[in-house]
Amino acid sequence: MSISKEKLEFGDYQTPLEFCEKVLNTVKECVNPTVILEPTFGIGNFIKAVQSRLNNVNTIYGVEINKEYCDKVKETGTNLTLFNEDIFSFDHKKIINNLSSNDRLLILGNPPWVTNSQLMSQDLKNLPRKNNFKKLKGLDSITGASNFDICEYIILDLLNKYKNQNAYIAMLCKTSVVINIMKEINKYDFNISDIRLYQFDAKKIFNVSCEACLFFAKIDKNGDNVVSVYDIDEAKEKLYDFGWKNDKFYSNFNMINSEVDGKFPFQWRQGIKHDCSKIMELQLTDDCKYINGEDEIIDVESTLIYPLLKSSDLKYTYINKTRKFVIVPQSKTNENTSYIASTSPKLWNYLNINKERFDSRKSSIYKNSPTFSIFGIGDYSFSKYKVAISGFYKEPSFSVLSPDDKTIMLDDTCYFIGFEDEKYAIITMALLNSSLVQDFLKSIAFLDKKRPYTKDILMRINLQEIINNTNFNDLQNLLCNYNLKDKIVEKDYDCYKNSFIYQEQLSII
User: How many CA atoms lie within 13 A of 121 on its CB side?
Assistant: First the structure.
C-alpha cells in the first residue's frame, strides 16, 4: 500500500472515534482530569470523545498544524482553545501560564508514527529542530543510533515541558517508543510514575503492521522505572511488568534468570555497512562470472571480493557456502582506498564508474571519509570462523560460519564473534543455542522491535555461567541437534573450559 508524502510527513492517521472512546474509558480509571491538551489533534476525534466522556473537564487545549482541521474542530464546542501551529515550535507557556495548582492536566493524543530518517529520505520537512535530544555520544550521535520516532520526540518533549505541573500523559504509539523511553529514563530531567502500557491491535485500528499501545503515566517528582502491561480489552488484568530491576533492564519480570545475566567475555561485532548494495553486493552466474544488483555482468579481480551472508541467510546452524558476495575495499575503518588502483585495477575502474552512487549515500558517516568507504570493518572481520546471529528474527538462533576458502562476511543486520579455531566456534554456538541462553534472551529482548537482538542484549550473556551448567554430555546432546556431535570430543571441551578458567586466549578476535 503506497502512502502519500503528505500523509507520511504529517503522520495523518486519524484515530477512529469509537477507539478514542475506548481509550478514554481506560484512562478515566486512572485519572479524573480537569484540563486536556491534545498536541496533534487532527480531525478532533479525541476532543469529541473528551466532550462526551469526561464530565469534569473545563478546558481543552489543542495544537494542530493543518489549518483546515483546526477550523473545523473550532466549530465543535465551547471551552476550546486551539492553536493552528507546529508542535515542534509551539510555545507551551501559552498553556502552562493558565494552569492553576488545582488543575489536573491530561496530555492526550496520537502523535505521528514515523521516524526522522523516513522523513529525511523523502526530503520532507516536518521535523523537529536538529539536536542530540537523547544525549548520545560519539559516533552514535550521527549514525543509525540517532534515528528516532517523531512520536518519541514529541512525548519526551511534552514530559519535559510539563514536568513541574500536576499532569498525566496518555498517548497512542508504537510499543518500541515506550521501550526506548524506559531504557533511557534515568537520563532525563523528568520523572514519571504509575506507568502503564495497554496493548492493542494496530492492524485493526490503523491498518499498520506493528506492535502498538496506549502509554499512560503520571508526571511525578517521585519517579518509577517499571511498566505494567495490560491488554486494552482486559484493562484490569495485568499481564506482566518490564523495566529496570537491580540496575538491569528486563523485557519481562516473569522470566528473569539473574545467574545468566552478566557480561559476555568477548566483543560482539556488527557486520559490514556500505549502503550501496546494487554495486557492492554480487552473485555468481553459472559460468562463474560476477553479476551486480543491476543485473550487469562485471569483469573484476576477486582479491577483494568475499562471501556474504545477510540476516535472511542465517537459517542453518552450520554454514560454509553463501549465495552472495561483497566487495570489501578496506581492511579497517578510514583506510585509504587508492591502493586498489594498483592491486586490482579492474575493480578500481568498476568502483569509479559507479562513484556517483557512493557519493550520493545519505548517511553522514561517509562524509570526510575515503572514497568507497565502508563501516563495520576491522581485523575481527577477517577471522576464519564466526558465530553469528540475525538481529531481526524473534527466535535467537546462532550459526557457525565455517568457509571452505575465504572468510565469510556479514551485513550490518547481523552480529558475530570471530574464532581461529573451528572447534571453539562450534562449542560456543551450541552453548548459545541452549535453553538457558534462549530463555534468558527472551527475558531481556523485546520481540516486537524491528531488531530484537542488539549488541547490548548479546553482551549480557554470562557465558561462564552457561559453561558451569553444561557438562560434556549436555554439550553432545546439543550438538546432536545439528549433526555436529562427531566434531567435538571431551578433550576439546576440557580445553575450552580451561581457557575460561585461566583466562587464556580462546583464539577469539
Answer: 9
